[in-house]
């Protein structure tokens, strides 16, 4: 009973039942009032007609002397199903009331005689000696503008009750039919809603156990459940990618760390055990150890930078930076590698603006872009570095003749730990883009498979306030 599959249709049906009960109560009250109003209207109409009939018969009887009136009150009661009462001066001389029922004394006290004298009708309830409650309409019996008495037309209240009880039975049957239809619809709707939710719940359990290749339920239509399933599917895919990147990162980092550590350990052991007596060999070993330590430092620095950027604990300095001089410095860093690999390495500086930014971080971005360009540019290829300034912004362009980037990888290359060939840590471009955003700029990419890549770093001339 705690399952959503049960509670959803149960709540739906409970709402319908509550609405039905309220509707029944309102309909009950309205039917009672309507039935009473219609009955009183009918009684008034009968009272008016009967008053006219009795008055006419009284006039005819008076004209003909002692001849009995032609009306038969009992036959009229059988025809209409109502009761006819009278009290006051007998309308038929020598014949009394002509067979009309005398109105009980306790009922007479409920009639407003002032209204009767004014020619109006009066409605009231009373209970005759027979014991059946009646609803009645009293009107004046007048002959030649003289009110002789009061003529009363009454109907059993049970007839009113029978009328609306019958109507309520039909209403109850219609409500039960509506509940049956609503129950079927609620069961169907709950299956349509709960089934994919249960599927998502099961998939969430599998993801919680570390399995990201779970089957997601297919939800038709573009409703909220379908949107949730689609987002859940994307989340599982991203979690799977994140786990794979983390696994690859750990393997890569462990390899990257182990290689320089192995080099350092080997040369330190050789020096410690005196295997290198030659001062020149010892100095060469120390150079190798220093290069390996520098490589370790760079790797650890990249990881720390990315962690700071992700946690928004990265501090950006604001200082005047000569972009032309900064580009010269970045260009010189890769000059030896370009010469060694016969790469056509050129720099083109159209403007030498001075902007307010963090110079060290800008140099780090450009160095990462150049490192990526040299990594993918084959020997004998070309790498071009350029600088322009326009519209209050500066742009640093790094263009290479590498293999280019496929459309599906344009965004993925900027994700941490992603490596297209499994080599490296996959942090260079990720850090470059995060640093560019932190400095108020952006990195644009123009590439196509087989046509190289063109990275464009755009920075504002002044920092955003």
Q: Would you kindly provide a brief summary of this structure?
A:
By secondary structure, the protein is an alpha+beta fold. It has helices at 4-64, 73-80, 105-108, 113-117, 157-208, 224-272, 279-310, 323-333, 335-340, 359-376, 428-438; strands at 83-88, 101-102, 122-126, 134-143, 146-156, 319-322, 344-349, 354-357, 382-390, 393-400, 442-447, 453-460.
Descriptive tags:
465 residues, alpha+beta, Beta-Lactamase, Helix Hairpins, Heat Shock Protein 90, 3 domains, rod-shaped
Report on the architecture of this protein.
With 465 residues, the chain is of the alpha+beta class. The protein folds into 3 domains: 159 residues, Beta-Lactamase (2-Layer Sandwich), CATH 3.30.450; 87 residues, Orthogonal Bundle (Helix Hairpins), CATH 1.10.287; 142 residues, Histidine kinase-like ATPase, C-terminal domain (Heat Shock Protein 90, 2-Layer Sandwich). It is built from 11 helices and 12 strands. The strands form 3 sheets. A 5-stranded mixed sheet has the order 2-1-5-4-3. Strands 7-9-10-12-11 form a 5-stranded mixed sheet. Strand 3 and strand 4 form a beta hairpin. Helix 1 runs antiparallel to helix 5. The longest helix has 61 residues. The radius of gyration is 51 Å and the shape is rod-shaped. The two termini are 58 Å apart. The mean pLDDT is 80.
How does the SSE layout of this entry go?
Layout: H1 4-64, H2 73-80, E1 83-88, E2 101-102, H3 105-108, H4 113-117, E3 122-126, E4 134-143, E5 146-156, H5 157-208, H6 224-272, H7 279-310, E6 319-322, H8 323-333, H9 335-340, E7 344-349, E8 354-357, H10 359-376, E9 382-390, E10 393-400, H11 428-438, E11 442-447, E12 453-460
Parallel strand pairs: 1-2, 7-9
Antiparallel strand pairs: 1-5, 3-4, 4-5, 6-8, 9-10, 10-12, 11-12
């Amino acid at each position: 009973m705690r399952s959503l599959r049960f509670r959803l249709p149960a709540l739906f049906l409970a709402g319908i039942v509550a609405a039905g009960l309220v509707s029944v109560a309102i309909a009950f009250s309205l039917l009672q009032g309507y039935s009473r109003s219609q009955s009183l209207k009918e009684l008034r109409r009968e009272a008016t007609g009967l008053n006219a009939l009795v008055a006419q018969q009284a006039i005819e009887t008076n004209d003909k002397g002692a001849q009995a009136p032609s009306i038969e009150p009992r036959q009229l009661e059988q025809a209409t199903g109502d009761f006819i009462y009278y009290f006051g001066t007998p309308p038929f001389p020598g014949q009394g009331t002509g067979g009309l029922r005398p109105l009980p004394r306790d009922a007479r006290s409920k009639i407003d005689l002032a209204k009767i004298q004014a020619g109006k009708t009066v409605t009231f309830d009373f209970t005759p000696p027979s014991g059946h409650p009646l609803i009645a309409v009293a009107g004046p019996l007048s002959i030649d503008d003289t009110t002789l008495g009061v003529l009363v037309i009454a109907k059993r209240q049970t007839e009113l009750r029978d009328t609306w009880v019958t109507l309520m039975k039909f209403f109850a049957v219609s409500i039960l039919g509506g509940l049956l239809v609503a129950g079927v619809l609620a069961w169907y709707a709950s299956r349509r809603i709960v089934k994919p939710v249960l599927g998502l719940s099961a998939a969430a359990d599998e993801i919680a156990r570390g399995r990201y290749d779970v089957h997601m339920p297919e939800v038709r239509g573009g409703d909220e459940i379908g949107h949730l399933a689609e987002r859940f599917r994307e989340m599982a895919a991203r979690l799977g990618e994140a786990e794979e990147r983390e696994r690859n990162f750990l393997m890569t980092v462990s390899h990257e760390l182990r290689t320089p550590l192995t080099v350092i350990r080997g040369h330190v052991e050789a020096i410690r055990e005196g295997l290198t007596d030659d001062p020149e060999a010892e100095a060469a070993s120390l150079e190798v150890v220093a290069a390996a330590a520098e490589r370790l430092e760079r790797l650890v620095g990249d990881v720390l930078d990315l962690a700071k950027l992700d946690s928004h604990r990265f501090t950006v300095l604001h200082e005047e930076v000569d972009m032309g001089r900064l580009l010269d410095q970045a260009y010189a860093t890769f000059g030896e590698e370009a010469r060694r690999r016969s790469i056509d390495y050129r720099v083109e500086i159209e403007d030498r603006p001075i902007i307010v930014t963090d110079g060290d971080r800008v140099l780090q971005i450009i160095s990462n872009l150049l490192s990526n360009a040299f990594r993918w540019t084959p020997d004998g290829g070309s790498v071009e570095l350029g600088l322009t300034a326009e519209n209050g912004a500066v742009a640093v362009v790094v263009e290479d003749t590498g293999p280019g980037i496929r459309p599906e990888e344009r965004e993925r290359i900027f994700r941490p730990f992603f490596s297209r060939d499994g080599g490296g840590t996959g942090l260079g471009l990720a850090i470059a883009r995060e640093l560019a955003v932190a400095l108020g700029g952006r990195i644009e990419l123009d590439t196509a498979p087989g046509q190289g890549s063109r990275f464009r770093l755009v920075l504002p001339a002044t920092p955003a306030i």
